[in-house]
Amino acid sequence: MKIFLPLLVTMLFVIVPAVLVAATMPENRETTSGLKTATFAGGCFWCTESDFEKLDGVIKVISGYTGGHVANPTYEQVSSGSTGHVEAIQVTYDPDKITYAFLVDWLWRHIDPTDAGGQFVDRGDQYASAIFYHDQTQLDIATASKKALEQSGIFAKPIVTAIRPLETFYPAETYHQDYYKKHGIQYKFYRYRSGRDDFLKATWGDRLDRRSMVIGPGFVKPGEAKLRSMLTPLQYKVTQEEGTEPPFDNAYWDNKKDGIYVDIVSGEPLFSSRDKYVSGTGWPSFTRPLEPDNIVTREDRKLFAVRTEVRSRMGDNHLGHVFEDGPQPTGLRYCMNSAALRFVPVEDLEQEGYGAYVKHFE
After folding, report:
1. Can you tell me the distance from the alpha carbon of 170 to that of 180, in angstroms, rounded to the nearest whole number?
2. Largest Cα–Cα distance of the chain, in whole Å?
3. Which residue is catalytic, options 38, 41, 44, 310?
4. How far is CA 199 from its chain centroid?
5. Which residue in 41, 149, 335, 341 is the catalytic one?
6. How would DSSP label each residue in 45-68?
7. CB 270 within 8 A of CB 294
8. Cβ–Cβ under 8 Å, residues 113 and 160
9. pTM over 0.85
10. What is the mean pLDDT of the chain?
11. Is 47 a catalytic residue?
């Protein structure tokens, strides 16, 4: 036994600390099964939990508290506003089925990101909205998504939702978990009276629950080297250097199939085949955008004449120009470059994540 005693002592010094560390690790770490975690605050966690649990790819949602200075806080402490914590949710999701960028976009569409004093009927710092990032990638996506929302024009007021590093997340008391399921009548009454749904409907309309992103989803544009590796020389010249492809010698000028046209880099839905017409110019032409929020126009004086350039909002890519010589009902001609677009046939919409547009063709 004396021979093995030093070895036994050494093993104890290695194993015991490791066990203690494992036992005290916060619940914020990613799981070993490939699932990931996101943490958000959007006012009453009963509501944010119910909004996120209905998403495909979300495995579970836990209501809790984070961002403050009191360890293991109670609901009474947090609701008093004295702990610095906010009501928050921690979302466990499958990244093969849903992206973090989508979750961030989903948050925007289920809160009032312009409210610095709480959310809807719930007032106080403990109900403020926030994104708590777990790593640099989440920070980059959340920052880009917030910037896109600011530029979208959807909200007239400044976006005040904080983006903060996650520290410790404390699960709330058991009776708060799945409250909307356990106490359906009370929850529905509270939600109706809170004003949340009226605000969201007025702000987003029929885009509220759309699976395909309208302002994102939190797209981070690649750098020059990555773009050059992703795109053909012609695609790069058109989208990044505001070039023009040859007429009658491009992919979509004569395309008559049903489907939608999306930005070749960001994937933003831009135009529909239902608004495409034969303009005789040799370039794909449309009477209007499928998603106006994804289109940006600006004055172009490069060719000694004033034209209106069309760009994608999230991708910030040159698409073409819009002219006032199109057919009714708009009188506009969105003259686009095929090299800036990718066509998604109607039969592929569902599998490529654009399922919300299937009904557009029914």
Report:
1. 20
2. 96
3. 44
4. 19
5. 335
6. HHHHHHHHHTSTTEEEEEEEEESS
7. yes
8. yes
9. no
10. 85
11. no
Which residue among 173, 207, 241 closes a domain?
207
Statement to judge: residues 128 and 153 lie in one domain: yes
DSSP-based three-state secondary structure for 10: helix
Same domain assignment for residues 160 and 234:
no
Query: What CATH number has the domain bearing residue 127?
Result: 3.30.1060.10
CATH number at residue 341: 2.170.150.20
Say whether the peptide bond before residue 217 is cis (omega within 30 degrees of 0): yes
Beta bridge partners of 334: 286, 322
Q: Summarize pLDDT for 281-296 with one digit per residue, the tens.
A: 999 999 999 988 888 8
- CA dihedral (290, 294, 299, 304) positive or negative: negative
In a domain, 218, yes or no: no
The torsion angles phi and psi of 200, rounded to 5 degrees, stand at: -65, -40
Domain region containing 200: 14-207
More confident residue, 15 or 265: 265
Tokens of 239: 């989208």
The dihedral sign for the CA sequence 116, 103, 187, 59: negative
Cα(318)–Cα(340) distance, integer angstroms: 7
Closest CA to 263 of 321, 148, 341: 341
Which residues have a Cβ under 8 Å from the Cβ of 341 and sit 6 or more positions away? 251, 252, 261, 262, 263, 264, 270, 271, 284, 319
Tell me which amino acid residue 312 is. S
Across 25-44, b (16+ Cβ under 10 Å) vs e yields eeeeeeeeeeebbbbbbbbb
Q: How far apart are CA 309 and CA 298, in angstroms?
A: 5
Per-residue model confidence as pLDDT tens digits over 249-275? 999 999 999 999 999 988 889 999 999
Q: Answer yes or no: do 268 and 352 share one domain.
A: yes
Answer yes or no: 335 catalytic.
Answer: yes
